[in-house]
From TrEMBL:
GO MF annotation list: hexosyltransferase activity
Source organism: Sinobacterium caligoides
Keyword Glycosyltransferase in record: yes
Keyword line: Glycosyltransferase, Transferase
InterPro entries registered for this protein in UniProt: WecG_TagA_CpsF
Any coiled-coil regions, as ranges: none
Domain of life: Bacteria
Protein name: N-acetylglucosaminyldiphosphoundecaprenol N-acetyl-beta-D-mannosaminyltransferase
Upper taxonomic lineage: Bacteria, Pseudomonadati, Pseudomonadota, Gammaproteobacteria, Cellvibrionales
Length: 247
């Protein structure tokens, strides 16, 4: 757990910027100290209040990055000045850039086979020298998991990116952390789809005004059910701020 860990409306999150996360990951690899990185956003904050296992997964993580603008706004309401938002989809490329510079191997686990392969190819193209030492699509049964863990360990990877979606990736990473030899694990959700070109990120102007969530909702209506948690989070933040809810 990081020294930068604070509670925002009862949700654990680390007040750390992008550069700080990359530096921390590099230090952990050099010192061979395992670190799991999860993203925190309003949807996950509400889900964790309803799911004790998910809350434990998140709270025991090495780093919990403030992925959603809702977390940043909530922190301001609680009088905490966050350094910056750290989108998980932007952190993964930064970690790959660091890995390429230092000769660290990375392993990609998750998504469909074509998406996984295309994401790996795009990363190698973007970061010359990057060693994608292994990859595996996300269609792995419980019975096949021991073989997957052996595959990851045999690859010699220092970094593992897991794209199974939440909360499945948080469960998987937490349950198998002790069996894995990788130093850095990051849960990346749909980032492989973005890297592969299957899903477009919001235009820069939308991101600048912190409206990426709205762009994604408009372009992917199937996300509406997930986004329906946002009003519940706003209400939680308000009640937490005025002391009407135990955090």
């Amino acid at each position: 757990m990081s020294d930068s860990r604070i509670l925002v409306a009862g949700s654990p999150v680390d007040n750390i910027d992008m550069q700080g996360v990359v530096r921390h990951a590099e230090t952990m690899i050099q010192q061979r100290e395992k670190c799991t990185i999860f993203a925190m956003n309003p949807e996950k904050a509400i889900a964790a209040r309803e799911d004790p296992e998910l809350y434990e997964c998140l709270n025991s993580a090495g780093l919990l990055i403030a992925d959603g603008i809702g977390i940043i706004l909530a922190s301001r309401i609680h009088g905490v000045a966050f350094r910056e938002r750290v989108p998980g989809s932007e952190l993964m490329p930064k970690l790959c850039q660091m890995a390429a510079k230092n000769g660290y191997g990375v392993f990609l686990f998750g998504a469909k086979e074509e998406v996984n392969k295309n994401a790996a190819d795009k990363l190698v193209e973007a970061y010359p020298g990057l060693q994608v030492v292994g990859r595996q699509n996300g269609y792995v049964s419980e019975a096949q998991t021991p073989a997957l863990i052996e595959k990851i360990n045999s690859s010699g990877a220092q970094l593992l990116f897991v794209a199974l979606g939440s909360p499945k990736q948080e469960y998987w990473m937490s349950r198998h952390q002790e069996q894995l030899n990788v130093i850095i694990q990051q849960g990346v959700g749909g980032t492989f789809d973005v890297l592969a070109g299957n899903v477009k990120r919001a235009p820069a102007l939308w991101r600048r005004f912190h409206m990426e969530w709205l762009y994604r909702l408009l372009s992917q209506p199937q996300r509406f059910l997930r986004q329906s948690r946002l009003p519940a989070y706003v209400w939680l933040v308000i009640r937490s701020r005025i002391g009407l809810v135990k955090t």
